[in-house]
Amino acid sequence: MSEMLRHTLMFAGVFTRRAIQLTKYKHYLYPKYFLIPSQAQSFLKNMGNNGSAGLSDTTGTARPGKIQLSDEEWQAKLTRQEYIVCRKQGTETAWSGELLENKAKGIYSCTCCGTELFNSSFKFDSGSGWPSFFDVLKDKDVTELPAIDFKTDTSHGMVRTEVLCGKCDAHLGHVFDDGPQPTGLRYCINGVCLKFKPDAKGSDKKKTDL
């Protein structure tokens, strides 16, 4: 059995078990994929079967202004889909996000807490089906830090770098090392995890130097 086929079958089993675990939310976390070998390679690439982005885990870094709510409070604050994806590490269906094709100038903020995360000038079309960015804004309180945290993710039989909101630990997506210059990174973000604030005058906030 090839390595690619092994991972494809592993995905099928993991997705099925995860869907069963979360049936009480009546929400599908992933699209229903029927993969043949020619499709599997593209699917696994977009989902991140290319190792981590080489970024260190920063979840232990102290940050001022951390937001901590109980699980019940998050459920009350968020829609069902927002809660599943942001607080339970779900994934919205590819090509379904309202912000995927958004080309307006402005700022993308965390759905959960409103922290500013991405400038529209960082956004690019990755062809993955999820909003993608090549850079991230700085933490508004500690400019030496990015507005997000990195966490090593070994779920689904892969090693990836998970992206979390630096202020409320919301799951946002993952970051990979196949993005455009100048960073070479691709922040693959669930659109439901973001809120967009348009800026009629444009926005020129500084990028992080990762």
From TrEMBL:
Pfam families documented for this protein: SelR
Domain MsrB positions: 71-199
EC class name: oxidoreductase
Gene Ontology CC annotations of this record: cytoplasm
Keywords associated with the record: Metal-binding, Oxidoreductase, Zinc
Protein name, UniProt field: Peptide-methionine (R)-S-oxide reductase
Lineage of origin: Eukaryota, Metazoa, Spiralia, Lophotrochozoa, Mollusca
Stated role: Methionine-sulfoxide reductase that specifically reduces methionine (R)-sulfoxide back to methionine. While in many cases methionine oxidation is the result of random oxidation following oxidative stress, methionine oxidation is also a post-translational modification that takes place on specific residues.
Cofactor: Zn(2+)
Reactions listed under catalytic activity: L-methionyl-[protein] + [thioredoxin]-disulfide + H2O = L-methionyl-(R)-S-oxide-[protein] + [thioredoxin]-dithiol
Family: Belongs to the MsrB Met sulfoxide reductase family.
